[in-house]
């Protein structure tokens, strides 16, 4: 299989601090991911001042702030994102960010990002999807909170308006997401429906589910991470800490190797072992020349010499052309 593209989702776990954003880049690089991703927005352009917080945001950060106030405190500026991009280039990791408006998108495209990663909240934002398509870029679209029909409309809109390529990430928009709400098989449903690249954006605790997703065919994995899960903020609780992120990456790379190419055949090590492990046709009692070979005088035993057992039916019923002692390999 192709190498899984692993995105470390820094998201808003920098808590609006530029210095923490750079530390997240360092942690992502150390973990061995392919890209570190942030979220780029101007709060006034995406939420009203009276908008309520999501339930998980209230649970994780309290109800004192409005959603507007929370997002404003987590916002990084365009100049800061330019510096973050430059820092990613310096340390050798791909910088990505999710835009929430056309203005954000054009700013990010000006930073030469290779793909537009779009969040689940935009699946039904048809005007925005049309604008994304018109940029003729590769797109990765998360699909939380969506019916298959919603995904179909979003996918078709992006392609119709010119997207170069669209990959779909199965996602459950809950932070953290309980295991019984993951529904990983929906990823395979989208693969069958749209014949496109699919992956999984994970909000569960731990690393088991993204690893399972890779075993089920995910080609892209996105996972939230933080420097410290006990920090204040809406997404820290459902995020991996750096050591866990590194463990997830190593596990995914192991699974990639284990999946192989799907061709059933013995590998080089097995071929060596088969010489002494697979059973061969052996005389289980003395055999005289002219005797009929069969179950009465033959056995299948491990031996370094002799005819492999898979040829039993070619040997049984033949006439012995020489004498054999017990444990002699049969020859014809």
TrEMBL record:
<dbReference type="InterPro" id="IPR020007">
    <property type="entry name" value="NeuB/NeuA"/>
</dbReference>
<dbReference type="InterPro" id="IPR051690">
    <property type="entry name" value="PseI-like"/>
</dbReference>
<feature type="domain" description="AFP-like">
    <location>
        <begin position="280"/>
        <end position="332"/>
    </location>
</feature>
<dbReference type="Pfam" id="PF08666">
    <property type="entry name" value="SAF"/>
</dbReference>
<dbReference type="Pfam" id="PF03102">
    <property type="entry name" value="NeuB"/>
</dbReference>
<dbReference type="GO" id="GO:0016051">
    <property type="term" value="P:carbohydrate biosynthetic process"/>
</dbReference>
<dbReference type="InterPro" id="IPR013974">
    <property type="entry name" value="SAF"/>
</dbReference>
<protein>
    <submittedName>
        <fullName>N-acetylneuraminate synthase</fullName>
    </submittedName>
</protein>
<dbReference type="GO" id="GO:0047444">
    <property type="term" value="F:N-acylneuraminate-9-phosphate synthase activity"/>
</dbReference>
<dbReference type="InterPro" id="IPR036732">
    <property type="entry name" value="AFP_Neu5c_C_sf"/>
</dbReference>
<dbReference type="InterPro" id="IPR006190">
    <property type="entry name" value="SAF_AFP_Neu5Ac"/>
</dbReference>
<dbReference type="InterPro" id="IPR013132">
    <property type="entry name" value="PseI/NeuA/B-like_N"/>
</dbReference>
<dbReference type="InterPro" id="IPR057736">
    <property type="entry name" value="SAF_PseI/NeuA/NeuB"/>
</dbReference>
<dbReference type="InterPro" id="IPR013785">
    <property type="entry name" value="Aldolase_TIM"/>
</dbReference>
């Amino acid at each position: 299989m192709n190498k899984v593209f692993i995105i470390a989702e820094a998201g808003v776990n920098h808590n609006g601090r530029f210095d923490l954003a750079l530390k997240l880049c360092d942690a992502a690089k150390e973990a061995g991911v392919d890209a570190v991703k942030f979220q780029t927005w101007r709060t006034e352009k995406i939420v009203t001042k009276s908008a309520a917080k999501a339930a998980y945001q209230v649970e994780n950060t309290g109800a004192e702030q409005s959603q507007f106030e929370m997002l404003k405190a987590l916002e990084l500026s365009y100049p800061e994102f330019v510096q973050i991009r430059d820092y990613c280039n310096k340390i050798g990791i791909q910088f990505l960010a999710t835009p929430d408006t056309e203005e954000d998108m054009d700013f990010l495209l000006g930073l030469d990002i290779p793909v537009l990663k779009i969040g689940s909240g935009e699946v039904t934002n048809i005007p925005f999807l049309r604008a994304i398509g018109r940029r003729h870029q590769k797109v990765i679209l998360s699909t939380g909170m969506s019916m298959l029909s919603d995904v179909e409309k979003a996918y078709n809109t992006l392609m119709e308006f010119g997207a170069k390529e669209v990959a779909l990430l199965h996602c459950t928009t809950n932070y953290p997401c309980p295991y019984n709400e993951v529904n990983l098989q929906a990823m395979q449903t989208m693969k069958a429906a749209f014949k496109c690249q699919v992956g999984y954006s994970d909000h569960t605790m731990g690393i088991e589910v993204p690893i399972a997703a890779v075993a089920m065919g995910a080609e892209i994995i996105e996972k939230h991470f933080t420097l410290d899960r006990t920090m204040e903020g809406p997404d820290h609780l459902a995020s991996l800490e750096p050591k866990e992120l590194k463990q997830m990456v190593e596990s995914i790379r192991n699974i990639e190797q284990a999946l192989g190419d799907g061709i059933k055949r013995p590998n080089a090590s097995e071929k060596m072992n088969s010489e002494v492990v697979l059973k061969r046709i052996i005389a289980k009692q003395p055999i005289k020349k002219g005797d009929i070979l069969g179950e009465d005088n033959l056995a299948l035993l491990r031996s370094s010499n002799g005819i492999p057992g898979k040829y039993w039916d070619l040997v049984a019923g033949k006439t012995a052309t020489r004498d054999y002692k017990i444990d002699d390999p049969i020859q014809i």
